[in-house]
Design brief:
This protein is mostly helical. The protein folds into 2 domains: 16-62, no CATH class; 67-244 and 257-264 and 274-282, Rhomboid-like (Rhomboid-like fold, Up-down Bundle). The protein is built from 11 helices and 6 strands. The strands form 3 sheets. A two-stranded antiparallel sheet has the order 1-2. α7 (143-163) crosses α8 (180-197) and α7 (143-163) packs antiparallel against α10. GO terms for molecular function: peptidase activity. It comes from Schaalia naturae.
Length: 283
């Protein structure tokens, strides 16, 4: 055998190896089996089969310690506290409820109304749905992404209520409360996560269809908020999933930073959308 022939497991041209994204100028010796990024000897963490990079190893440690859906529990606690406050003081509750006529000068109502509920059954059903879905997808998305998804879906639901004023101007004075818009955003997130992972989405589609139809036929339910939260949740989750895909030469930390910047841009886009709707309505 010629001395020029590479042995089994060796590169035919060692100089063709890419640089380690964590140590520019240092040649990689392997690829992470999880994120598929190149890694140098210093960044290589052996496992039972092949190896992972230091970033994935760090992420594994963080995941083991952040499985508790603290954001979900925090939202439930906030909703329960505000419901109890509302039973004692209706004036305090009125400071947070949303109606299109109020949201123009008091924009915080777009979000705070998602923490209010009209009855015991209203808060019970919404909190049960939040508990079931939040415990499933918060660990998958991560705490801050889940919080962004929930908050933007809540605002998206209120924005849809506002936009309906183009069709039915009388709703300009109509108040809406409830976490349903945000919860529909979470249902949408389940669909996106299942779809991208190749899982069967039939059950979640049936659940969405039944709840949407029920909102249309039952009086006193803001189907506009449901639809707005659903569409917002679809868009936000799709963006987060796309940004989380491994890319060679980009470290997980850098991807996390990009996701944070994009989340801020989505929030700005939502605010701009609401401002645009008000501009057209009041023109």
């Amino acid at each position: 055998m010629s001395d020029d022939m590479p042995r089994y497991g060796q590169r035919s041209d060692p100089g063709a190896a890419p640089d380690c994204p964590r140590h520019p100028g240092v040649r990689a010796v392997d690829y992470c089996k999880r994120c598929h990024r190149p890694m140098c000897a210093q960044c290589r963490v052996p496992t039972e089969v092949r190896a992972i990079c230091v970033d994935c190893a760090r992420e594994n440690r963080l995941r083991r310690t952040t499985r508790t859906p603290v954001v979900t529990y925090g939202i439930i606690a906030a909703c329960v506290v505000l419901y109890l406050v509302g039973t004692v003081s209706q004036q305090a509750e009125r400071a947070f409820v949303f109606a299109p006529v109020l949201g123009y000068e008091q924009p915080w109502r777009f979000l705070t109304t998602a923490f209010l509920h009209a009855s015991v059954l209203h808060i019970l059903f919404n909190m049960l749905a939040l508990y079931w879905v939040g415990r499933a997808i918060e660990p998958a998305l991560g705490h801050w992404r889940f919080a962004v998804l929930y908050l933007l879906s809540a605002v998206g639901g209120s924005a849809a209520v506002l936009a309906w004023c183009f069709v039915q101007p009388a709703t300009w004075m109509t108040a809406t409360v409830g976490a349903s818009g945000a919860v529909f955003g979470l249902f949408a997130a389940v669909f996106v996560l299942q779809r991208t992972s190749g899982a069967d989405t039939t059950s979640v589609l049936v659940l969405l269809a039944v709840n949407l139809v029920y909102g249309f036929i039952q009086s006193g339910i803001s189907w506009q908020a449901h639809l707005g939260g659903l569409l917002t949740g679809l868009a936000v989750t799709w963006v987060f999933v796309r940004l989380a895909r491994p890319r060679r030469g980009v470290t997980p930390r850098r991807q996390e930073q990009r996701a944070g910047m994009v989340a801020a841009l989505m929030a700005v886009a939502m605010v701009s959308l609401v401002a645009g709707v008000y501009t057209l309505l009041l023109a």
